[in-house]
Each structure stands twice: as C-alpha cells, then as structure tokens.
Structures
1.
Amino acid sequence: MKKKIIVVFFIIALCCSIIFLKDRSTFKENTNHSFGNTNVLLITIDTLRSDHIGAYGYNRNITPTIDKLAKEGIRFKHAIAQAPYTAPSHASILTSTYPFVHNTRNMFFQDSSGKKIEGVNYPLTHTNLTLAEILKEEGYDTSAFVSGWTLTAKFSGLHQGFDVYEDNFDGEERKADKTNVLVKQWLEKNYRKKFFLWIHYFDPHFPYSPPESIKIDSSFSEVKFDIDLMPLKKNPYLRDVINSHEDIAKQVHLYDMEIKFVDQQIGKLLDVIKEYNIIDNTLIILTADHGESLTEHKEYFDHGTYLYDVCLKIPLIIKFPNNQWQGKVVDSMVQSIDIVPTLLDFLNIPLRREFQGVSLMPMVLNKETANAPYAYSESDAVLSKRFGERLRTYRVKDWKLIYASDGVLAESELYNTTEDPYETKNLIDENKEIAERLKEKLLLTIKNHPEKKIEGTNLPDEETKEKLKSLGYL
Ligand SMILES: [Zn+2]
C-alpha cells in the first residue's frame, strides 16, 4: 500500500513538473502567459537619482541591496520620471498616464470673476483608473504603505483601489525602519494571499538626517563644489546648515547616507519575504518618483521646479519571478508610465485604453518595439512663482527640449543628452530645426490626450494650507 502511494505521488509530481516546464518554455514565445499566483511588490524610493546607485555607475558602495536586485532582475538604464515632484509622479506610475491627463498636480483655477488663480496639488479623482483598482478586480489583496506627507490619502488621492492605505504618521515623513515595522506586521498576516503591495520610502528627501547607526565615511570631504554660496545663504532651509563649500559636500554625503539607510531597510524587507518563501512568485519593481538637484543648475538640494536629468532620471529595476532574464540591461529610454502596462502584460491581464505607457515586455524579450522611444515630463514650476506656466520637456534618443511656453519669464532650452548628460551646453540657437521638431511632437502629445475635466475647484482648506506653508510648499 505504501509503495502504491509513493508511485502515485511520483507520477503526480512528474506530471506537474512537465506542465510547469511546458508553461515556462511557451512563455518565451508568447508574453501572454500568466503566473496565476504572482504577487506584485512595488517599491518607490522618494528623491533617488539614478546616478547615486552602484548599479547605475555610482562609485560609492552605498546600495548593495539595490545592486543585487539589478543583477537578479532587469535594469532599465534610461528611465524617465513624468514629473520631478512626488504626487504627480506617483500618480503617473499608478495610472500609466501623463500628469496633464490624471491632473494630480498643481492646478490653476478660475475664481468667480474668471481670474486665474493658483491652487495646490489636486488629488487624484475617480475618473482615473489605478493599478490597485485593476489588480483588485483580478482578485489581489491591495495594500500601500506610504512614508511622505504629500502621499497621504487626503493630499494625493492615491489610496484609490487599496484595501489598506497606511499613511498615519506625524510630521512630514516616516523613516524606512518604522514603515518596515508595519509592513512586516502586514506580511505576517497576509503573505499567503495573492497581493499587490506598494511601499514608498521617503528617506532621501531633504532634510537629510540619516540615523546614527549609518557609518560616516570621511571621503565626502574630497568632493569639490565650486559654486557661489550666496543663494544658499538666502535660502531659509539651507542657511543654517551651509556656511562653506565643505558643508555642501557634507549635505551630499548625508543624502548618500539616507540612500544607504533605505537600501539596508529594503534588504531587511526582502529577507522577510524570503523567509516566507514567496520571493520566487513575487514580481518586484523598484523605482523612484524623481531625483534631486544637489546644487546643479542652481537648484539646491531640491526638486520640483526644473526639468534637468538630475531630477528626472530615475532607477527602474524589475525582478521577475525565479529571476527570469536576470542581469539584462535595457538601453532604450523608458518612462514611469510604462511600469503598469509591463507588469500587466507579464501577468496576462489586458492593458487598458487609458494607458499612455507601453509594455516593456518586447524589450525584455529582445523583440522590436513599434515606436521610437521618447519621453514627456512636466514640472510644477508654478510652485516657484517664477514662471507663468509649466515647464515641459519632450525628448528622443539624443535630444531633449525643455519647453517654456511663456518665453518671457523662462526660455526654452535644447540639450544633446548623449554627449552632454549633465546638460551644461544649451544648443537651441545652433539647432533650431531640432527644437522646432521636438516642440511640434510635444504639442501633438498634449493635443492627442486632452486633460480630464475637473469638477469644482477643490482648493485646499485652511488646515492644509497651513501644513503646506510649514513644509515650504507655499
Ligand atoms: Zn518625491
């Protein structure tokens, strides 16, 4: 009897492995394969510019966890954020639409007399469709843990579609270790379910205050920052911390140590996922909402106003179940809005008409893509009160236009990002035809996707205004 059971068990096991192997091999031919119980883990790290990550070429060893994830997954070398600001960029990630479509951004409104007035961040409306809503329909448990005040449900509206949206903390931010405590508690109860889990870490955002436990490396003082200190002394957030060029180097160092801390915490989180034995059926996406200007282009330890690549180039790493396609590097330009179509394509869930991004699975599978890569981004320049309208950028492989429609308060700029990745030489006067071609494409992109209408003005209440003022947003 015992022998019979063993034989039957053996036959079942053999059949299962044959079916599994067959499925795996057909997937290579056809992206329409579904791993039915694949979990989705989306990790977004606030304010993390890609060139401060080892896997993206940074020479300080501060991101061993992210670097390992890049080796086990696919690294997209040129990933572009849709906005250099937290809520609009995350809304683009989660809806696969540009900010001018989802409208989770700073808005202008008209008062009763028809005068144009400035509002603050407009939360996501229900006319948008989010990744959480789509995956919930597909039977996923959906949970989010956010760590920055501008992603709270009240401010961003990004809780749409989540069963759990953990945004309850005091002050502007919650440190990664504190967020992890809650995530671990959640995992303990829910790891057996099929889940979509979004974790947002805020640590690299200014002010840079890494915990004492992070080792201080003295090599930072060798970095030279030969810039005018005067604007920093006028800046209310920086005048108390920067009095010398060495202080600038120190701030960059502290920014790095925040990255190191968040990297350590992600490592601890992935250890928990491994302990529950669910790492091989979890699709992991690691990205950022935007980068940070560390004094470049006269933007000092900040982001949100300008559209230079220090604020737009972000990491994008996708680790597929069982490390499939591990170590691959995709050179083509991709955008934040491509994340949702890519993971749905992998999961064999139909893409939606609303999406403006495309699936990157053809790139993963070395297949031709229909369109030449391009990217669009826009800023919340209205925050600075320096410009009448937004700045926008449209870019193709080598060229990037920063378009200022106003033309008076700000002028358009053109860069060759292949030859000049840090955008030091504005080439618009020498290349007017290229600039004009990119401008036409930019305007066509906007025309083809009209803004969603917003009902009412929904201007912030006094409490929200006060909070925004205290955080320096108004
Ligand atoms: Zn952010």
2.
Amino acid sequence: MADPKGFMTTPREEWPRRPAEERVRDWDEVYVPGALLPIVGAQADRCMDCGVPFCHEACPLGNLIPDWNDLVARSDWRAASERLHATNNFPEFTGRLCPAPCESGCVLAINQPAVTIKNVECAIADRAWAEGFTPPRPPDRLSGRTVAVIGSGPTGLAAAQQLTRAGHTVAVYERDDRIGGLLRYGIPEFKMEKRHLERRIDQMRTEGTRFRTSTTVGRDMAADELRARYDAVVIATGATAWRELSVPGRELAGIHQAMEYLPLANRVCEGDLERSPLSAAGRHVAIVGGGDTGADCLGTAVREGAASVTQLDIYTRPGAARDEEAEPWPTHPKLYRLSAAHEEARDLRSAPAADADARLFAASTLRFTGDAEGRVRSLHLVGVDAGRRPLPGTERSLPADLVLLALGFSGPGREDGLVDGLGLAVEPRGTITRNPDFATNVPGVFAAGDAARGQSLVVWAIAEGRAVAAAVDRHLSGGTTRLPSPVGPYDRPMTA
Ligand SMILES: Cc1cc2nc3c(=O)[nH]c(=O)nc-3n(C[C@H](O)[C@H](O)[C@H](O)COP(=O)(O)OP(=O)(O)OC[C@H]3O[C@@H](n4cnc5c(N)ncnc54)[C@H](O)[C@@H]3O)c2cc1C
Ligand code: SF4
C-alpha cells in the first residue's frame, strides 16, 4: 500500500466506456482507449493489503492480487507483470472478460465498492505487452516427450503453453480454421479484440507450440492414431452441445442457436464475410436466454442494425444488492448487472416491448408462429413466478423474425466420434469423467476445461489448463512436477 488511507480517500472509478451511440457503429472494444492508465494507480491504492486476502481465495487462479495492486500503486509495472504472469497465462483475456469473482470476495466490498481488481489486471497486462515485459519463454531443454492437446480454447492454450515451457513437444489440434475456441468464434470483438489472442498465439509459436487447424480429431484423424503417436493426450474440446427449446414452432425458419449466429458475426470481423448470412439488420430479434451468451447476441444484433431486440430471461429480476442470507460475502452473488450490451440497448431504446434495458424477466416462451412461407414472425410468451409457474393472464406476443436461442450447453458434442472412438467414460450430464489427477479412464488421456467441468468461465478454463498441464507433466516425468496446479477437478466456486 503506497497510501494506507487510499480506500478512505479515493472512490471506486472504473475504466469508462465509450458513448453507446458511438460504439455500436463499430466492433471495437467498448472502453475509451487510454482512459484506464491515468486512473488505475489510485484505484490499486484502494487495496488494503489484507492479512487474509479473500480476493485471492475467490479467484480460481489464485491471482496474487494484493501484491500487484501494491506494485501498480508504486508504478513498478515490470514487477507487477511478473507477479501477474506467475499465476495467469493470459491476463489480458481475463482482464477483459472475467466476471471478477475476486471483486465479489474483496474485503473492501463488505461496506464499500470493491477494489477495481479486473481493471488493474488489464492495465498490467496491456502495459506488459507495450513495454515488452512478457517475452516468449522457450524451454532451456526438451524432455523428448510429446503431448497432443485437442481443442484450442483457453483451456487448451493454457495447457499447451505450460507444457511447452516445461520442455515437452506440444501440438494443438483444432477443428476450426483458426485458433482460440470460444475466444475466437463465440465472444464478440467488442468484448475482446482478437489482436490480443493473435499476440499470444504468436508468442506460443515462438516458444515452440505447434498448431494444426481444420483438423477434427475423431473424424479427420482417428483419436487412437493420435494416442499412439503422442505420449499423452489432453482433451480440451469445450462444451459445445447446446440446449434446445422444444416448443411448438421451433422448426420455423429464422430460429437459430446463439452459436450458429455469433461465429458468423465474428467471421465478418475477421474479414471472411462481408455480411453475416444471419444478420439481424432490419429484423425484430428475440433472444431466449438471460445469460452472457444472450447478452453477446444482443450487442451483436444492435451493431448489425436490428429493428428491435428483446432478451427473455426465465428468472425473476435479481436485486441490485447482495442477498446477505442466500449469497453472503465473499460469494459471487447473482445481481442485476448492466452489461455493456444492455447499456447500449437502454441508451438506444432498442426494445420497445421490454424493460428499458431490453430484458424481459420472468418470461417463458410458449410457442412460435410464422407466415405462409414457414418463417418465424412472432414469439408467444407467458409471465412466470419464481418457481417458473405460468401466471394466468400474462400471455403476450412479440414480433420476432430472428430468434436466437441462448439456453446454455450440456457438455462436449459427440458428433465427431472423439469421445466414443476413444471409449471415454462420461458423466450422466454428458461431461467427460476424470479422476483427481485429471486422467480419464483411458491411459495417457486427460480431460480439462468445459469438456469435463461443464460450461464455465475463461478464468476457470485457464486454471484447468494450468492444472491439467501439471498432471500431465507429473505423468511424463515419473511422478514429479514443478508446474502449479491452481484447481482440482472437483473444485467449485465459493458458495454459502
Ligand atoms: C458466447 C459465449 C460468450 C462467453 N463469454 C464469456 C465471458 O465474457 N467471460 C467468461 O469468463 N466466459 C465466457 N464464456 C465462457 C467461456 O468462453 C468458456 O468457459 C471457455 O471458452 C471454455 O474454454 P475451453 O477451452 O474449455 O473450451 P472452448 O473455448 O469451447 O474451446 C474448445 C475448442 O475445442 C475445439 N474442438 C472441439 N472438438 C474438437 C475435435 N474433435 N477436434 C479438434 N478440435 C475440437 C473447438 O472447436 C473449440 O475451438 C462465454 C461462452 C460463450 C458461448
Ligand atoms: S480483498 Fe480487496 S482490499 Fe483486501 S487485499 Fe484483496 S483486493 Fe485488496
């Protein structure tokens, strides 16, 4: 703490966002460029350097938050970068994308707004790249052991970087044409510009990680062949099996899964397409599902020029303040949060049929109806109580000629034959079974990230990637490893 009274004298101030009218006209990140650095030192100085830093406990990566808050407050950016990268391979991703359970667990948050930990993390990561504090770290010597990582999302990338740096020869297999998983073709550019991803991939290539794109393991290449060729295999294929909405009219044209819609918008940003074939331009859009994926659809539809956009959430509207009984500090509570996309929808009045921020809470979809050509035209819904029971007299309709389903994911897809080809045991909910060492029932095959944990967060994916790397290194090195293992396969976020 450069200033022990910082938390009493400095109010919380976040990285400001650009005006909604400006940012929806482009795909760039929503923040005002250059506006974080001038405020972040004083914000870091609000940290009380707690004896028991709950922020650290609340982060799956075990980020050394008070250490780097102090270093930023003292403008020692190089040391801050070293401390940050000691626990996180990709802080520029989490600094932009994480919902920040650390801030919910911050001791200051008991009676004041939390320290802006996520902003401090992002500032350190960006400064580290700008100043060259994070050069490639190729291994001093090679172990002669080989590892195949299947899937190039944050789990696969973190595992590959750790294992490459430990001296193993690592190849990452990815079925898409580009590396990155959901960071590439799920999360929109306005939440994280892909240049951050490219920079890390270049770093990893320089360190020696090999990448094989457009290769679906299980279909283009037999999983057994991969197993025979490598000393260990890490499955990091994500949870891509989306949930369906089985209501009358689901078969109408114009109803799509969020992950059919979002990747096309990402491809426009990549320059592959001039216009998305599913563009929302001029259409009335209804998004079914109140989570972050739905919010990403909302921000994308607004940028594409939708005539209106409404997001349906089956849950009742959460409160603005923590429920001290059900979700006491330091857990990460479900709160009414105004994401950048909701702020845009509110400011641009994008949803005349909904609440000001485009959301309709406690709303359940009954059916869709269409026109003579079989295209969806309306979504019919009913209000529900907290137990999801329909409330009589609350039926209503919304105009909808593009419907996006954002209802979550159950586990890895089975269509590529990878899970069945290898004979992997799976849990009843569809995720890959593994033991406390991240090992599956097939010798030499490990599983991590959303494929095994189920749909989660980038911060958990990176933590799982680091932990599975330690398990693989132990397996290859005869029982020892110097790699850190921040989480176990059965660890879960803090709850009351
Ligand atoms: C739209 C959307 C937005 C999100 N936004 C956020 C956010 O803002 N913040 C946050 O913390 N989390 C967010 N998440 C969740 C987060 O993206 C995931 O938890 C995380 O990406 C999981 O990482 P992963 O590496 O396990 O899987 P993924 O990122 O899904 O990567 C898996 C990769 O494996 C590849 N693959 C699958 N099968 C094969 C095969 N047989 N052969 C070769 N390759 C294969 C896939 O193509 C994919 O590239 C979001 C999720 C979605 C869907
Ligand atoms: S809990 Fe909050 S105030 Fe305490 S060390 Fe962590 S960031 Fe600083």
3.
Amino acid sequence: MRYRLLRNTISPLGYRSIRVPASPSASRLLSSSTRKSPTSKSSKALKAAPTIPFFGAFFSSNRNTEEKTTVMSYPDQRSEDQWRAVLNPEQFRILREKGTERAGTGEYDTHYPTKGVYNCAGCDAPLYTADHKFKSGCGWPAYFDSIPGAVTRHVDNTFGMKRTEIVCTNCGGHLGHVFEGEGYKTPTDERHCVNSVSLRFSEDAAPKAKA
Ligand SMILES: [Zn+2]
C-alpha cells in the first residue's frame, strides 16, 4: 500500500530520484509522511522498491550512467546515515535531498559582509567569497561567481523546468540553481541562487585578495 502511494506521489520527481543513487526523494517523502519516526528499516524498504528502474525507463541508459558517475565522483563520499549524523534536519533536507528554503527566510539572504568566505555547510569546502555576493532581490543569497572549481553544475529537469542545479564539488551537497543572462550588472550576469542553509559563513577564512 505504501509502495503504491509513494510511486504515485513521487512521479513528478522521478528524475530526481534517478540522479542520486541513494534515492533521497523517497526518503524525503517518507520523512514528510512519517516525520516523527523515519526508521532505517522502512527507509531500506523504500530503497528496495523498484521505483528507480521504473522511472529509469523514461531516460536513456547513457544519461543515467553519466549522472550516476558524476554523483559518485565527489571526493567526500559520506553515506546518507553519516550525513544525517552531522547535519540538522533542515540541512539534510536541502543539501542531501535537494530541498529549497522559503524565499526571504535565509540567514544570508540580506547578508553583505565586506570580507569572508561562504563554506559548504556539509563539508566545509570554501564555495563563495564575500566579493561574489550581490543584491539580487530574489529572496535567496546570490553570487555572480564561485571560487574556481568549488561548484559543479548539473542539468535539472524537475518540475517541468530546465534549470541548472549547482552542487558542492567536494561533497555533492545541493546548493541551489544558477541562472544566466538576467541583466544583472555584475561581471558575469550569472546568479548563483543558493540556499542559506547550504552555507556557513566564516569571516576569518582568507578571502580572495580585494582590489
Ligand atoms: Zn560540500
């Protein structure tokens, strides 16, 4: 019964479940319906359910393999359980299950330090400097660029939109999306729209040299 319910519910998000081998969408759906006691036993049962092959049929095997290879290549290979042990529930939902914080609620939405570094809230890798941040008015922290190589892009076709997802290159943690050509007066006219929850600011870390 639960399997059928999940399968119907997960349908619009199916692509997402394919991209991440640990099937976090299933875990999220589980935790939202049984938030008080998401036991590892039921989590395993969901992983065993044949949702991934079912949705995999909609996509080419090449694509599937490519995405999995990408996901598996992150240097920080912590398991879902290991992430749960170090992240709070909201961090886990956003970083590991590709969630989104509500617009205008994030700690760093209107945070404009003159120096410092925004690190990955999961693995602590430096992602953005204070110099990259700009006022977008979109409701989430916005950066026009990242520290070179710190952020990896993936095509994200969920919710019927073609977007570019950005993740931490070191741990694969979901940061947000990047949008191009919106007309912002920045050096790149790119907007890295990042969840505050995915970040941890440090003013002590050595920022990029400022002009
Ligand atoms: Zn990370």
4.
Amino acid sequence: MRADTPGRSRPALALALTTTLLVTAFAPADAPADRAADRAGGGAAPRPVAAYDFEHPVPGDPARERDRGRSGTTLELVNGGAQSRVRDDERPGRVLRTRQVSPGTAGSDDWKAGVYGPQGVPTLGAFNGARETTVMGWFRMTADNPAPNSNTADPNDRYNAIGLAGILSGTSQGHDVRALLELITVNGEMKVVALGRRVDNGSSQTFAADADWREILPPDTWVSLAATFDFDTGTMALYRDGRPLPGRHVVAGDPWAVEGAPEPDVASPTDPRGIKIGGSYPQNTQEGNPCDCRMDDLMFFDRALTPAEIMSQYRRTRG
Ligand SMILES: [Ca+2]
C-alpha cells in the first residue's frame, strides 16, 4: 500500500481497495498455469504465487502491474513507470525495460521493478516458512553489464552484480534476499547464480553456473532462466531454456544451518519484505546492481519445480 494519496477521499480509497480485492478473488480462468495445464493435457500444473507478463497495467495506474499469479501482489514499475512497459521485436505484447540512469550520480532514478513493505508484504505469505521456492523468467541483456557503480566516486568502478529477479528476506533492507536469480562476481569472475538465504539475517549460499556468463546470456538474446531453492536439503539448481545448467554450490559448510533437528528445514517464519527486479531497493531509497535488460514472464513459485515442470513453463512462455 502506498502512502496517502492527496485529495483522495476515504470512500474512494475504500472503493479502490474493494476493487483490488475483487480482482484478486476472481482470478481469470486463462491464468498462465491453467493454460499450461490445458496444454499438458490436464494435471496439476503449478500455479505461481506471483507472475508478471507486463500486459496487465493496473486500471488507471499504469505505473503498476497486476499479478497474474494467485497472490495479488501488485508490482511497482519504479522510476520508469508505464514507459518501462515496452514493445519488443522478438516477443509478443510488451516486456519490462530496466536500466541504469545517470551512471555517475548516486541518485534514485534507475528503472527497476518490485514491491517493498517494511513490515513484510502479507500477500507474499506463501514464502513465509516455505520449504521450497522457484524464481523463473525471460531475460535479454541489452547493453554493457555490469553497470558503473553510481555509489562510488571512481568512474571505472563497476557493480559486482547484475540484478535479475528475486524475493527479499523477511528482514531485508531492500537488498538482502531469500531467493534470487542474478549475476555476481564469484572468485573474481562474473557468474550466473541462484543466491538463497534460509534464515533471515543468516548466511547466504550461492549456486554458480559453470559456463561463462556471456555464453549463458549473450548480448541482445532472449534467454529463459530458472532457479530452484530447497531450503530443507540446502540445495539450489539453475536452468537455461528449460534445461539444467551445470554448476556448483560456492559456500563450504552449512551456511543455511540445515544440519540437525528440527526437520524439515524451512525458510524463516516471516513474510518477505518484497520482490526486487532489475536491481536492489524496490522502495527506491538507493541504487544497486542495475540491469540494462529486458524481462518478461517473471514467475515466483512456493515450491521447487521439477525439471519437467521447468521445461513445460519454458515452452509455454517462449512466445
Ligand atoms: Ca509480455
């Protein structure tokens, strides 16, 4: 919920809230997962908690995007607003444009997307105590990433990470995550990774793809990426265009503290503070790890999809 809107009367606000609830309650029958189930010949295709196709602006408020998943978590198109919903020469409809603005200035104008709630976002409650999670979407690198670090004086200093999409932890300042798909420097080398944190304020684990990141995400090429997180076994996996990406867990030991009782191990019993897409700090207080990218069909599931389900989602969304 955003801050008070000047001039908006209480009845009008109540009506707006009611409309939102109605939209949430009566999810459309053509929701993505339902179509997937139809195409797969029935069966229980997983329905995402949150899903964004960037074809569904909030009526009257096009700087926000409706959730096509089951949670009704409305996304903010931060700084870019409706302008960041753009047409693409390779994918139908519209996609999300994210990018750095003013590389030399420590400001708050980068185009990104997300949602942030300082007390947690209740609609993301499916990830409260979740045993598993999947983050999935389509990504196209459109310029020279990583971007110059606008938070330091050195013009040659670049960010050590490129933000794609993820779910914030329950105590996040807008950067720390529970489950994230991104690129980050691992032992001096940029890598495509899944990065997860089971316990709020605890240590993170990183699963890094072996292949060179420029082979996984060539310039100006649409790629489907997925990351799965199993908080009970302490393991993650990555997929590119529906197929598993060979890789390895980077942190030795037990950073998620899954050894020993109690079982099973689940994520912290807190609602995530939000979602971040194309950079950190969705509340727009700071810049961090921007992505000069296009993105589409971003999905967040509260379980680890199987390899067959990942392939099915890839085929369904490849446009
Ligand atoms: Ca789209």
